[in-house]
Design a protein that fits this description.
The chain is built from 11 helices and 11 strands. By secondary structure, it is an alpha/beta fold. The strands form 3 sheets. Strands 3, 4, 5, 6, 9, 10 and 11 form a 7-stranded mixed β-sheet that branches. It has a two-stranded antiparallel sheet with strand order 1-2.
Length: 282
């Protein structure tokens, strides 16, 4: 068994299928299947359950997956330090909210890249729930999230309390019955908006889901519905008068934003440097 075998196993677990892993790794599907059978034979353990919808980890497979992730991370970090002791290298995969990616995160990433140009950065946007799940599954080193995630395997670094604005078209609209323009389920802004409407005993009417921040803002401007977003994001449109702001009570006017990562995450050099910059973001 070598690190290539472990990386293959990890990719199968993350994609949930032999074909998905083969596509990601650029191997023939039959080659992956053969190597997986050999791995299970070597370990004398079934690592996956097979079914018509794909494959899922057994309990033994879950334990092996956790250990394989740590082995690969430690191995790659050790190799990078030995081969390039004067430079910090490696890979860093960070998840983020789209709103953070359009406001404060670029400055952090720019500073990190200037100080660590050899590190390969990968940024993935997603809802708080999706990013947290990917962190728990070792697919991301860490992620910027909104609100709170109840998971004792995660550690968090508070970043800010983000000011929120409830925005609507700058035209006549029945706000009480307006469609909600939101990100998919798992979004902290959506959850806050729904909690606010619930506190007012308003019925949630047909949420319209978007995957892109700009599409939500543009659709509010066009008169499609209302949305709850960070004030920094919508302020230019408020200044232009293309949308208007609806006052929010204090309990719903801010959202805590933080950086989360697994408590058992391997503290590679690149990850430690990123954390340092997060602490100095102001």
């Amino acid at each position: 068994m070598n690190t290539n075998t472990l990386e293959m196993f990890i990719k199968i677990a993350q994609t949930g299928s032999i074909s998905g892993a083969a596509e990601k790794l650029g191997y023939a599907q039959s080659n992956i299947s053969t190597k997986l059978r050999q791995l299970e034979a070597d370990l004398n353990t079934q690592l996956f359950y097979r079914n018509n919808r794909g494959i899922t980890l057994t309990d033994a497979g879950k334990e092996f997956y956790t250990r394989a992730i740590k082995i690969i991370s430690l191995t790659n970090d050790a190799i990078d330090q030995l081969k390039h002791p004067e430079n910090i290298q490696g890979n860093l995969k960070i998840g983020t909210l789209q709103t953070a990616a359009s406001t404060f995160l670029p400055k952090i990433l720019s500073k990190f890249h200037q100080q660590n140009p050899q590190v390969e950065l990968s940024i993935a946007t997603g809802t708080t729930l999706l990013s947290a799940k990917r962190v728990l599954n070792y697919e991301l080193d860490g992620a910027i999230i909104g609100g709170h995630v109840s998971e004792n395997k995660l550690a968090t670094i508070p970043l800010m309390d983000e000011q929120l604005s409830l925005v609507a078209p700058n035209t006549e609209m029945d706000i009480d019955n307006a469609p909600l323009l939101v990100f998919p389920v798992g979004c902290a802004y959506r959850k806050t908006l729904e909690s606010y409407l619930d506190s007012k005993q308003f019925m949630v009417h047909h949420p319209i889901e978007f995957n892109y921040l700009n599409a939500i803002v543009a659709s509010v401007s066009a008169g499609l519905g209302i949305s709850l977003l960070p004030t920094k994001v919508v302020q230019p449109y408020l200044n232009q008068g293309t949308i208007k702001e609806i006052p929010l009570p204090k309990d719903f006017s801010t959202l805590p934003v933080s950086f989360t990562y697994r408590k058992d995450h391997i503290m590679t050099q690149s990850f430690q440097e990123f954390i340092k910059i997060l602490h100095k973001k102001d």
